[in-house]
Write a structure and sequence with these properties.
This protein has one helix spanning 53-69, and strands spanning 7-11, 14-19, 22-29, 39-43, 46-50. The chain has 75 residues and is of the alpha+beta class.
Length: 75
């Protein structure tokens, strides 16, 4: 049995990171020219921003990987 891999899918004003039908994270592009950061990202209970799409995607992938390995405090 092969393990499914998450994939990036372009969406409206950004990209979404999916594993099957489960949304793992997203990167959103800010349309305003005067925005402090061009992209913001959210994943695994973390968030951030920056001016480079590839770096934002890598941050999402890292946050998902860390969230997957972190132990649950309440189980």
């Amino acid at each position: 049995m092969s393990k499914k891999k998450p994939v990036w899918e372009p969406g409206y004003n950004g990209h979404v990171y999916w594993l099957g039908k489960k949304k793992l994270g997203k990167v959103t592009r800010h349309p305003e020219k005067n925005a402090k950061q061009k992209y913001s990202w959210e994943a695994g209970g973390r968030a951030g921003g920056g001016d480079d799409l590839d770096k934002a995607k890598r941050a999402v992938e890292a946050a998902v990987a860390m969230a997957d390995k972190q132990l649950d405090l309440f189980s």
